[in-house]
Amino acid sequence: MTLVQLTAVLGIGLLAMVVAVAMAYYMLKLSQLTD
To answer: Which residues cross the membrane (predicted)?
Structure first.
């Protein structure tokens, strides 16, 4: 695995994690509003 491939995998993994956290946070806020 080259450095470029490694960087791409890490970048995509980090991006996916950020999106997952943002969605979870949004869902939490949404559930608090409806409560």
So the answer is: 6-28
Q: Name the residue with tokens 């995998």.
A: 9
Q: What is the pLDDT of residues 11-32, one digit of tens each?
A: 999 999 999 999 999 999 999 9
Q: Which amino acid is at 1?
A: M
Residue 31 is encoded by which pair of tokens?
């559930």
DSSP 8-class letter at 1: -
The sign of the CA dihedral 27, 29, 30, 35 is positive
Six token digits for residue 21 = 């956290």
Token output for 15 = 């991006």
pTM summary value: 0.65
